Amino acid sequence: MANEREAAPMPTGPLIAASDLARIAGGAGVAILDCTSHLPAERRDARREFEAAHIPGARFVDLAEISDPASGLPTMLPPVAQFEAVMRGLGIQAGDLVVVYDTHGIRTAPRLWWMFRGYGHERVAVLDGGLPAWRAADGAVEQGPAAPAREGDWSAMREHDAVADTAATRVAAAHASSQVVDARSAERFQGLAPEPRPGLRAGHIPGSVNLPYEQLLDPVSHAYLPDDRLAEVMRAHGLGLGRDIRFVCSCGSGVSACVLALALHKLGERDVRVYDGSWTQWGSDAALPVETGDGHVYALKTYVAAPGKFAAMRDRFLSSAAPLLAEQGLMLERSWTPPEAPDTFVYLLKWRSCVDFDQAWDAFARDPRWLEVKRRSEAQGPLIARQESMMLGTSTGEMR
């Protein structure tokens, strides 16, 4: 543990490793907060679990105490005075490095990270892997309630600037320059599984894309994936990284959406907002449209290779064309070669309904990178003898 004279260095990104936290925990200007919360169906008491085992010096934050009780929704941002009062009661000072964790690994801690950052407090980080990572690094734990805190002086520096309301989310879902990304499970997104909250319709916001937040995490440690894997997963789900896209993250109630928001921030995306009411708000409003299915439009393309060129044709598409098409919002769903036609390569593309296919394809075809790949690969003649395209329409099961 650090001694009280040591300053707390700010991590280089939004996460802090357990080994780095161990070096500064207990030092001046370091505040550690456990903001674990469980779903009602899990029937677990997060505060009682905190008192059974927590990082030494940590204090417990009840998400209900930093949510707006007047909103009628589960975890909406509270009035700023309410948030300030809770943070001051926990002893948070204006210059503190606030380290947030939960006992799941990564699930609820990013919500508090997002709240602090939106209010202008940049010195905040999430313990990557949470309490399990701390224990795996041989970190000590203590029992009992947190010791009483000296009153803090923390104040919000601005109105929260990373939140989206329903109107802004609806606009974002309808434009190619922005993306609404839903962190719920694929079954809930497609309307195949019932919502855990009574009275909510099944399905998703029309025009949104689905990336279940668990896919951003290591399946064993429940810490975030490395950056290269994060980017790979996001692009595979159609997220337009590095393209000046405005992202609006949604989920069931605005909590796991923050897992996605932090991951985007970690990869350098800065125009990222959270739809605070998320599906609980949208799905309960009968005036708002709901879509089922996976919400994409599909096209099937078939290429027949020139004699002796099949492998070169297939490899060129998979290694060069597919990534460039994804940059335009045209994602490769899958590809295959029919057993009866070994010189034929078939692939299925999908895209959001707000993407203009012809415009996106034209931008791909004119991309200097693709033109150079074509020039080099066709120096000895064309790779493709014949090609066909078939629009398959949308997978939407219902719009209501």
Automatic annotation (TrEMBL):
Q: Which PROSITE patterns match?
A: RHODANESE_1, RHODANESE_3
- UniProt key word GTP-binding: no
Give yes or no: UniProt keyword Repeat.
yes
Q: Domain Rhodanese spans what residues?
A: 26-143, 174-291
Gene3D superfamilies per UniProt = 3.30.70.100, Rhodanese-like domain
A Pfam family hit = NIPSNAP
Read off the InterPro entries from this record.
Dimeric_a/b-barrel (IPR011008), NIPSNAP (IPR012577), Rhodanese-like_dom (IPR001763), Rhodanese-like_dom_sf (IPR036873), Thiosulphate_STrfase_CS (IPR001307), TST/MPST-like (IPR045078)
Q: Which UniProt keywords apply?
A: Repeat, Transferase
* PANTHER family linked: SULFURTRANSFERASE, THIOSULFATE SULFERTANSFERASE
Q: What is this protein called?
A: Rhodanese domain-containing protein
Q: Which organism is it from?
A: Pigmentiphaga daeguensis
